[in-house]
Design brief:
It is found in: Membrane. It is a multi-pass membrane protein. Pfam families: MatE (PF01554). Belongs to the multi antimicrobial extrusion (MATE) (TC 2.A.66.1) family. The protein is mainly α. It has one domain. The chain contains 17 helices and no strands. Helix 3 packs antiparallel against helix 4, helix 9 runs parallel beside helix 10 and helix 14 packs parallel to helix 16. The longest helix has 38 residues. The radius of gyration is 23 Å and the shape is globular. The protein starts with a helix and ends with a helix.
């Protein structure tokens, strides 16, 4: 379908009605998918192929990005045990107070952007991007002020003074990475290319210690941003996020974005915060240095394994959002069920991986016997956690695609804080299970979260969700048209 054909369809007089107008544009978007792919994905096999194409690209990008964190932890481990513990603590604090918030804010734009791009409403697409970027950068500046004064907060939480001294240096030099991530996360909704993701750690050769590790991470993100912007500028087909329209600062025009952004922040942060709270609690155990170091290694391991269900999350969010935007609720339901099945298989593979590598994985990071013993004992429990984490992450992507981040936030709060956290504290301190008690608590949280997420998806009224998608896109388009 050519642009002239699209213009002809849009000029038909019946589109003066808002609902008919949306249906006509959805038909244009849906026909565009058929034109690009040759036929509509009407079978499970075709849905699997579509999901695989999206997921594989995200896996490549996420793995390269994750290698940056793994390499950082490896260098910290080789610098010394106190550096590994301090780096693990500061990384946990950075995730709790910074990166999770930045990522959650950026996720708020995904439902609107996917539907707007599918309907070729690029004005809406760019306006949402600029508003998101503005909010995320402001949040990054405020968070950096907190990081500069993090030492008294860690002392108040009862952390070891020697570990705090290293953590303070690491998190201070991580501020450039925070600002860079604040810019990169919204940009990733426009463009991602594996060749622009690098893992430079040459700063280590300048003997900067933990400061070098933190600065090298920031260099990686800056290179990714510059590469992506260069590609967007030179490409003839890439959608460019900039235009000459100013950001509309009227509060009512921000409501659709804020209504998705706030629950998206809580949905991401509630789960991330739980993991990082466990690092803080490790500092209260009898051997805080070994416990914090082992927790840091296992956190990197879970983050690596998370790449695969996360790719399903993103793929399902895109496909479900497109199906609802095209007013195909049956296809959205089929995609959701298929995605949960694939995620279950992914969970089984992750569990098998943790069993196979449990006696050798920790040796990549450190030679300390106490840390290695804790890592080896906890890895099978990590695998059990992945059996629940994979389907619940995929289900969360389905909720995102159907613009329901509030449901995900509520489920995360109940499962991680009303189920998982009490179980973890009780088993670690009251039953004297120590370090392993925290991971049994996580297993309880993941199991309850998976059950609630899957039930929410199964009981979804997909016809109602298609109606909601129509209303959301039409409302946002009307607001953007006022700026044209």
């Amino acid at each position: 379908m050519t642009l002239n054909h699209q213009s002809l369809i849009r000029s038909i007089k019946v589109v003066h009605s808002p609902k008919v107008k949306f249906k006509t544009q959805s038909l244009i978007s849906y026909t565009r998918v058929a034109y690009l792919t040759g036929r509509l994905p009407n079978t499970i096999a075709e849905e699997l192929i579509s999901l695989g194409k999206i997921a594989c690209d995200i896996i490549i990008i996420s793995l390269i990005s994750q290698f940056k964190s793994i390499i950082s932890m490896l260098f910290l481990g080789h610098l010394g045990d106190i550096e590994l513990a301090g780096g693990s603590l500061s990384a946990g604090v950075a995730n709790i107070t910074g990166y999770s918030i930045v990522k959650g804010l950026a996720m708020g734009m995904e439902p609107i952007c996917s539907q707007a791009y599918g309907a070729q409403k690029l004005t809406v697409f760019r306006q949402i991007y600029k508003k998101t970027l503005f909010l995320v950068l402001v949040a990054g500046f405020l968070i950096s002020l907190l990081w500069l004064n993090i030492e008294p907060i860690l002392l108040l939480l009862g952390q070891n003074q020697a570990i705090i001294s290293v953590a303070k240096v690491y998190i201070t030099y991580s501020i450039p990475e925070l600002i860079a991530q604040a810019y990169l996360n919204p940009l990733r909704n426009f463009h991602e290319d594996p060749k622009y993701n690098q893992t430079p750690h040459h700063i280590m050769y300048f003997n900067l210690g933990v400061r070098g590790v933190a600065l090298a991470s920031a260099c990686n993100t800056v290179i990714t941003i510059l590469g992506s912007l260069t590609h967007i500028y030179l490409s003839r087909t890439a959608v460019r996020p900039w235009d000459r329209q100013a950001i509309d600062m009227r509060l009512e025009d921000w409501k659709p974005l804020l209504s998705l952004m706030v629950p998206s922040v809580f949905s991401v942060c509630l789960e991330w915060w739980w993991y990082e709270i466990m690092i803080l609690l490790c500092g209260l155990l009898s051997d805080p240095q070994a416990s914090v170091s082992a927790m840091g290694i296992l956190m990197q391991t879970t983050a690596l394994l998370y790449v695969f269900p996360f790719s399903l999350n993103q793929g399902l969010s895109t496909l479900v959002g497109q199906a609802l935007g095209a007013e195909q609720p049956a296809r959205a339901q089929r995609t959701a069920i298929m995605g949960i099945g694939v995620a279950t298989v992914c969970g089984l593979l992750c569990f098998s991986f943790t069993i196979v590598v449990k006696n050798v994985w920790g040796k990549l990071y450190t030679g300390e016997l106490e840390v290695l013993a804790l890592t080896s004992a906890a890895l099978p429990i990590v695998g059990i956690c992945e059996l629940g984490n994979s389907p619940q992450t995929a289900s969360c992507g389905i909720l995102t695609g159907s613009a329901r981040p509030r449901s995900g936030a509520c489920i995360n709060f109940v499962s991680f804080y009303l189920v998982g956290l009490p179980v973890a504290v009780f088993m670690a301190f009251r039953l004297d299970m120590g370090f392993l008690g925290f991971w049994y608590g996580l297993a309880a949280a993941q199991a309850s979260c998976a059950c609630m997420m899957i039930c929410t998806v199964v009981w979804t009224d997909w016809n109602h969700q298609a109606e909601r998608a129509r209303e959301l896109t039409w409302t946002t388009e009307e607001q953007a048209s006022l700026l044209s």
